[in-house]
Specification:
heterodimer, A: alpha/beta, Rossmann fold, Arc Repressor Mutant, subunit A, nine-stranded mixed sheet, three-stranded antiparallel sheet, 16 helices, B: alpha/beta, Ribosomal Protein S5, domain 2, five-stranded parallel sheet, four-stranded mixed sheet, 18 strands
C-alpha cells in the first residue's frame, strides 16, 4: 500500500528543495514526469542554486524515509490524489499524507482561528469540533496552537467522523512541539496531510500556503476567534475566492482576540451560535446527505444562557447566598477583587459560594479569574 | 615587657573573642603581626605607628611582636588597631598595666590618632567577657545595645591615653539609643483603595507567616501593598530585635540613629542582585546577604521574573531552614535568615491589561517568562493572588478603608494562637501536627477532595492549603475546627499565577 516509487521520491525531493513554493513546483512538473524533472534540476537546467541543493539529495534516501515513516505520496494526476482537491485552481502538485482519508468523502467543515486565543474561544472551538464530528462532519483544521488544536481535540474526543489536519511543516516536524500527542492521535484516528515532504521546517511562508489547502478542502469555513490581522484572515480570503461560505463565532467587542471575527460579522458573514448553524450552512453547500439534527448535547455550551433553549438543566439550583454571588459574576472573566467589591460579604463566604458554584458547574475559574458558564 | 589586651573579631555575624598579646624586647627594631591576620589587619602596624607618633607618644625602637590569639582563627578588619596600640603602650611602659585591667578595646585608628567606627560593633561587643569595653565614640551608643558591659567611648587615642595614664575620669557612659525611636513611620494600609484581595492576602500573610506572591499588571499596586506588610507585623521581641540588630551591625549598617532594630525590617533588593548579595558571602569578609538583613522581617522581591533563575533558586534552602550556611574554602558561617518572602511579578512580559485575555505577548515569550520561576520556588508561596487594577470608581471614592492598626490587632491575636500551639507562625506547623491543630469539618474535606480529584490540588499543596486555612480560621476567630469557608478562602488565595498553565 505504501510503495514509494521513483516518481514519488522525485516529487518529494523536489518539494524539499529550498524555497520550493507550491506554484514553482507545479510549473516545474507541468509537462514532464517527476523523475526526468529531477534529473534536469540536477543537471542544472533550472539554475545552479537548485542544482547544488539537489546534488546533496539522494532519491533512494528520500524514498526510504517516506516509506519508513508510512507517509504516502499522492501526486497530482494519479488516482491516489484526492479528487476534491484536484479541482482547485491552486491545488498542490503533491500531497504527503498519514492516516486514512475516509473523512474526505464526508461533508467537511474547517474550523480555524488565532493561536493567541482566549478560554472562551478554546472552549467554543473544542465544543464545535466535538459536536460536528459527532454529527458525522469531518473537521478540517491546521493543528496550530490555540483554536486549531482545540477544534481537533474536540473532534477526536467525540469519537465521531475522522478529522483532517492540514499542516505547514513536514509530517515528521511536529509544530508546535507541544502538540506532539495530538499530532500522533490525528495520524491514528484521522488524517494528516501536508504539501511539504518529510523534514521540511515550519518556515513562516509555508503557513499562508497551507491555509489555501484548508480553504479548498472545506465546504464551510468557521472562524472562532481572530485578531484583526492574522493567519485566519488569510484563510478567510482564500475561502471567499473559492466561494466557500464563511461563518463566524461572535465574541465580546472588547476582546482583541475577537476583533477580526467581529469585523467579519459586520461585513456580512453569518454568525455561529451553535453547531446547528454550521450544519444548516453545510446542507446548502454539500451535495451529500447532511444530518440536520444533532446527536448528543445539542447546543454549544455557553451559548445557552437564557434558559429557553430547551437544554435540560442538570445543575442544582443555587442557594440564596450562591445566587447573590452568581448574579455578581459576568460571562466574561471577572477578578475576585471585582466580585468582592460587588458583594458586600466577608471574603471567605464569597470564596465558599464560588467553590460551590464551580463544583456545580455554574461558574469556572482560571488563574484567579471567575466567570459564569 | 608583655601585655595582653582582650578584643574581638568578626566571623559572619558573630563576634569571636581575640586576645591581643604584645611583646616588646631588645633586638633589631621591627614590628611583626602573627596569628592569621588578613590584609586589613596586617596593615594595622602602619596605622598604629602613625597614630602613636601623631598623638605625641613614643614609638619603641625595639623588637615588637603582636600575636592574635587564638592563632588558628583568621582575623579580619581594622577593629584590632586599638587593642594593638594599647597593648604596645602597656608593653613599652607608657601606660600602666593596672589602668587597662578588665578593659577590652575595639576600634580602628586613623593616622592622626582618631578612633573610627568598625562594622559589627554589636556582635563584637556581645562576644566580649570583660566588664568594661572601650570603643570609638561614634559607635558607643550601638555598643551599649548589648547591655552587659560598661561602655566607654573615646574620640582619639590621645584622649584615651590621658584617661588611662593620668587617671582622669572617664567621660560619662554613653546612654544606649532608646529602642524603637527609629525613623520614618511605616506606610498605612488605609492609603490603599480597592484591592480587597490584596489587602486580605497581606493580612493572612502577616498573621500566618505565609510567603506571598502578588501577580498583576504594572501599576496595579503590588509594590504599594507589599510595602505595607511590615506595618501589620507585631514589633520584634527583645531577642528577635537583638538578633536582627547583630546582623545589621555585622553588615556594616550605621545604627547610631536607629538603635535597636525593634520593628520588622523591610528589604527590597533590586532584581540585578547576585546570589551572593542575596544569600550572603564574599571572599575576604563573609557578609550577610539581603535574606539575613531581612531576618525577622520582610524580604520583598519586586519583578520576581527579572531575577536570574539561579539567584532565585538559591533562596530555596534558606526558605526551608530559616538559616543559610555560607561555606568557603577557608571558613564557613551560618547566618540567620528567617524572613517573610513577598514577591511581585507581571503575568507576562507585556504586563497584560487586566484580564486573562488582555495579553499581547507571543505564546513563546510568555512561556519563557513564567518558566524563569522554578516550580519548587513557586511551590513555597502559600499565598498567590492576582492584583488586578483597581476599579476607577473605588479609586476615586472617599470610602474609609481599614487602617494598619486595626488589621495589625487581628494579626497579633492570630499570631498569639500560633504561639499557643508551640510554633512561631502557622506556616511553620509540621504536616504531622495538622490533624491535631487544624482538623477540618466534613464539608471542608469535600471541597478538598473535589480539588484533589480534579488535579487542581496536589498532596503537597494540600498541607499548604491547610496551614493557610488554619490562619484564615484564626483570623476569623474560629477556635478549633477549620470550616469549609476557610478552606475555600485558602484555595482562592493560592491561585496558579496567571497563565502558568499554558494553553493546551
Amino acid at each position: 500500500m505504501n510503495a514509494v516509487d521513483e516518481d514519488d521520491a522525485a516529487v518529494a525531493a523536489l518539494a524539499g528543495l529550498p524555497y520550493m513554493s507550491w506554484d514553482r513546483l507545479r510549473t516545474l512538473l507541468a509537462d514532464d514526469p517527476p523523475s526526468s524533472v529531477w534529473d534536469a534540476v540536477r543537471g542544472g537546467r533550472h539554475g545552479p542554486g537548485l542544482a547544488r541543493a539537489a546534488a546533496r539529495v539522494r532519491l533512494a534516501d528520500v524514498a526510504a524515509a517516506h516509506a519508513a515513516a508510512g507517509v504516502q505520496v499522492r501526486r497530482l494526476g494519479t488516482e491516489t490524489y484526492p479528487g476534491e482537491l484536484a479541482e482547485d485552481h491552486e491545488c498542490p502538485a503533491a500531497l504527503f499524507t498519514l492516516g486514512s482519508f475516509d473523512g474526505l468523502a464526508r461533508p467537511r467543515v474547517a474550523i480555524v482561528g488565532t493561536r493567541r486565543c482566549t478560554n472562551y474561544g478554546r472552549d467554543v472551538a473544542r465544543e464545535l469540533g466535538r459536536t460536528l464530528a459527532e454529527a458525522g462532519v469531518a473537521v478540517v483544521s491546521g493543528l496550530a496552537a490555540g483554536i486549531d488544536g482545540a477544534a481537533h481535540e474536540g473532534a477526536l474526543a467525540g469519537g465521531g467522523a475522522p478529522p483532517i489536519g492540514v499542516v505547514g511543516s513536514g509530517l515528521d516536524v511536529v509544530y508546535p512541539r507541544r502538540h506532539a500527542r495530538l499530532w500522533e492521535r490525528m495520524a491514528q484516528a484521522g488524517a494528516l496531510l501536508s504539501e511539504a515532504p518529510l523534514g521540511a521546517r515550519p518556515e513562516p511562508w509555508r503557513f499562508p500556503a497551507r491555509n489555501r489547502i484548508l480553504a479548498a478542502l472545506a465546504h464551510v469555513l468557521v472562524v472562532v476567534e481572530s485578531h484583526l490581522a492574522g493567519g485566519s484572515m488569510h484563510t478567510v480570503r482564500a475561502a471567499e475566492e473559492r466561494g466557500v461560505p464563511v461563518l463566524v463565532v461572535p465574541g465580546p467587542i472588547r476582546s482583541r482576540a475577537s476583533a477580526g471575527t467581529n469585523q467579519l460579522l459586520s461585513q456580512g458573514c453569518h454568525p455561529v451560535c451553535d453547531a446547528q448553524d454550521v450544519l444548516a450552512a453545510l446542507a446548502l453547500r454539500h451535495a451529500g446527505p447532511v444530518p440536520l439534527t444533532l446527536v448528543g448535547s445539542g447546543r454549544v455550551a455557553g451559548a445557552a444562557g437564557d434558559g429557553g433553549s430547551g437544554l435540560t438543566e442538570w445543575r442544582s439550583p443555587p442557594t440564596p447566598e450562591a445566587e447573590a454571588v452568581l448574579d455578581a459574576l459576568d460571562w466574561t472573566p471577572t477578578s475576585l477583587d471585582t466580585l468582592l467589591a460587588r458583594i458586600d460579604r466577608p471574603p471567605s463566604r464569597v470564596s465558599m459560594a464560588l467553590a460551590w458554584l464551580e463544583r456545580e458547574g455554574w461558574a469556572q475559574s482560571q488563574s484567579g479569574w471567575w466567570q459564569r458558564c | 615587657m608583655i601585655a595582653t589586651i582582650p578584643s574581638a573579631s568578626l566571623l559572619g555575624v558573630d563576634g569571636r573573642p581575640v586576645t591581643v598579646e604584645v611583646h616588646v624586647s631588645n633586638g633589631l627594631p621591627g614590628f611583626t603581626v602573627v596569628g592569621l591576620p588578613d590584609a586589613a589587619c596586617r596593615e594595622s602596624r602602619d596605622r598604629v605607628r602613625a597614630a602613636l607618633l601623631s598623638s605625641g607618644l613614643t614609638w619603641p625602637l625595639r623588637r615588637v611582636t603582636v600575636n592574635l590569639a587564638p592563632s588558628g582563627m583568621r582575623k579580619g578588619g581594622a577593629g584590632l588597631d586599638l587593642p594593638i596600640a594599647i597593648g604596645l603602650l602597656v608593653a613599652a611602659g607608657q601606660v600602666p598595666a593596672e589602668s587597662v585591667e578588665g578593659c577590652a578595646f575595639i576600634g580602628e585608628l586613623g593616622l592622626d590618632g582618631s578612633l573610627r567606627r568598625v562594622p559589627g560593633i554589636v556582635p563584637l561587643v556581645d562576644a566580649l567577657g570583660a566588664s568594661t569595653v572601650v570603643v570609638p565614640q561614634s559607635c558607643a551608643a550601638e555598643a551599649g545595645l548589648v547591655g552587659r558591659h560598661v561602655v566607654r567611648g573615646a574620640g582619639t587615642l590621645r584622649e584615651l591615653v590621658d584617661v588611662l595614664v593620668e587617671a582622669m575620669p572617664w567621660p560619662a557612659p554613653v546612654d544606649p539609643v532608646p529602642a524603637g525611636q527609629a525613623g520614618k513611620p511605616e506606610p498605612d494600609l488605609a492609603d490603599v483603595r480597592g484591592q480587597r484581595v490584596g489587602r486580605w492576602a497581606l493580612e493572612v500573610a502577616a498573621a500566618g507567616g505565609h510567603h506571598l506572591l502578588l501577580t498583576g499588571p504594572p501599576g496595579a499596586g503590588k509594590t504599594l501593598l507589599a510595602r505595607r506588610l511590615p506595618g501589620l507585623l507585631p514589633p520584634l521581641s527583645h531577642e528577635e530585635a537583638l538578633e536582627t540588630t547583630r546582623v545589621h551591625s555585622a553588615a556594616g549598617m550605621d545604627l547610631s540613629d536607629v538603635g535597636l532594630v525593634s520593628r520588622p525590617p523591610f528589604r527590597s533588593p533590586h532584581h540585578g542582585a547576585s546570589a551572593v548579595a542575596l544569600v550572603g558571602g564574599g571572599s575576604a569578609w563573609l557578609r550577610p546577604g539581603e535574606i539575613s538583613l531581612s531576618h525577622n522581617g520582610v524580604l520583598f522581591l519586586d519583578e520576581l521574573a527579572e531575577f536570574a533563575p539561579a539567584v532565585l533558586d538559591s533562596l530555596r534552602q534558606p526558605l526551608e531552614e530559616g538559616i543559610v550556611r555560607v561555606s568557603r574554602i577557608k571558613q564557613s558561617v551560618t547566618f540567620p535568615a528567617r524572613f517573610l518572602l513577598v514577591a511581585a511579578m507581571n503575568p507576562c512580559p507585556c504586563g497584560g491589561d487586566g484580564g486573562p485575555d488582555g495579553c499581547r505577548c507571543r505564546e513563546q515569550a510568555r512561556l519563557r517568562y513564567v518558566r524563569r520561576i522554578s516550580g519548587p520556588l513557586l511551590d513555597r508561596f502559600d499565598l498567590r493572588v492576582l492584583v488586578a487594577r483597581a476599579d476607577v470608581g473605588e479609586l476615586l471614592s472617599g470610602e474609609e478603608v481599614e487602617s494598619s492598626v486595626v488589621v495589625a490587632a487581628r494579626v497579633r491575636a492570630a499570631r498569639e494562637r500560633a504561639v499557643e500551639r508551640g510554633v512561631r507562625t502557622n506556616a511553620a506547623l509540621p504536616a504531622s501536627r495538622l490533624d491535631e491543630v487544624a482538623p477540618m469539618t466534613a464539608e471542608a474535606w469535600r471541597v478538598v477532595e473535589w480539588h484533589l480529584r480534579r488535579g487542581t490540588l496536589s498532596a503537597r499543596g494540600l498541607h499548604r492549603v491547610r496551614r493557610v486555612a488554619r490562619t484564615v480560621a484564626d483570623l476569623a476567630g474560629a477556635e478549633h475546627l477549620v470550616e469549609e469557608e476557610h478552606v475555600c478562602a485558602a484555595l482562592d488565595l493560592r491561585v496558579e499565577p496567571a497563565r502558568l498553565e499554558a494553553a493546551s
